[in-house]
Design brief:
single chain, alpha/beta, Purple Acid Phosphatase, chain A, domain 2, ten-stranded mixed β-sheet, six-stranded mixed β-sheet, 8 helices, 18 strands, globular
Length: about 325
């Protein structure tokens, strides 16, 4: 009887230990636009690594997500009607491997070299073991969430673009990106809830380029997504940061700006944010942003002594945190 009671206590202790392990908060990182053509591409071709300055910070996170602002391919031709078209070489995948767990494809450059290059990009990411979302081989796949199952959490990350050209949108039987339509976005959030997501995070490609403040469209949609069940909202595309706020105690980071990108003379476009989140089943416990300063080649460097937005989940006010 004594041995049986001891066994029960051991089993109970193991169960409680398991629950404690599962309850460990998850550290999730979001990076803004990562463009591996031009300056960053030349650096990679010469044996350099544009992500090396942030390697230790990225490694410390449990899961890392970035926006891939270019196809990675050898196939395709640039579109005639675009001012800027990007395409990175396949070897550029090596700098992402081990640094990022997933890449968002929902942006206005994923389709720069056509559908064949887009599907080649997916194939390169698949071979490297890097997940992708916000785009796919058809419309249904493009709207599938990125599922993150770690530390007892089940997180759904959804990706959408709403900046032209809409021709990049996926169709029933052709590849492309997920387009941001309010009703569809809300339906996707509710579908993720029904599928058992503990937390849902929309990652939006939106807003006007080089505008330092979000527009009314962004503000209204962000609130609508949180009302529908999103735990927070993250955005990018304008090539500059756009500030942050809270709504119902949940953070909205309107634009992370650039992360790896060259070709900008505007100082605001050469400094982006890396977003760090501490999450558990209740939502966001704490979040902060780390300043990333890009050099002429588009390589980002951490900026010590900068003050950038941060906050705690459930709080209505933002703070400014000192970057280490």
């Amino acid at each position: 009887m004594r041995q049986s009671r001891k066994s029960v206590l051991w089993a109970l202790g193991a169960l409680l230990l398991g629950l404690n392990v599962q309850a460990e908060p998850l550290t999730l990182v979001f990076a803004g636009d990562i463009m591996l053509d031009d300056g960053p591409g030349r650096l990679i071709a010469s044996g350099g690594d544009p992500l090396e300055p942030f390697a230790a910070i990225l490694k410390a996170a449990d899961y890392r997500i970035g926006n891939l602002e270019c196809p990675i391919a050898e196939s395709g031709q640039p579109l005639d009607n675009k001012i800027f078209s990007f395409r990175a070489r396949p070897e550029s995948v090596a700098v992402l491997t081990g640094r990022f767990d997933a890449m968002a494809l929902a942006n206005n450059h994923s389709g720069d070299y056509g559908q064949q290059a887009f599907t080649e990009t997916i194939a390169h990411l698949d071979r490297a073991g890097i997940a992708h979302f916000g785009g796919g081989r058809n419309l249904a796949e493009a709207h599938q969430p990125l599922w993150i199952a770690k530390n007892g959490l089940k997180i759904a990350v959804l990706g959408y673009n709403e900046f032209k050209p809409r021709a990049f949108e996926a169709g029933a039987d052709w590849p492309g990106i997920a387009w941001s339509e309010d009703d569809q976005v809300i339906a996707d959030i509710r579908a993720a809830q029904a599928a058992g997501a503990d937390l849902i995070i929309p990652f939006m490609h939106w807003g006007w380029e080089k505008e330092s403040l979000p527009g009314e469209r962004q503000k209204k949609l962000a609130r609508k997504m949180i009302d529908a069940g999103a735990a927070l909202v993250v955005g990018g595309h304008p090539h500059v940061t756009q500030g942050a706020e809270t709504y119902q105690g949940k953070p909205i980071i309107y634009s992370l700006g650039n992360f790896v990108f060259d070709g900008f003379d505007d100082p605001a476009a050469r400094r982006g944010w890396l977003l760090r989140l501490r999450l558990d089943k209740s939502g966001v416990l704490f979040w902060d942003t780390l300043a990333a300063q890009m050099d002429d080649a588009g390589t980002p460097y951490p900026v010590a002594g900068a003050f950038t937005p941060c906050g705690r989940g459930g709080e209505s006010a933002l703070s400014e945190c000192l970057n280490p």
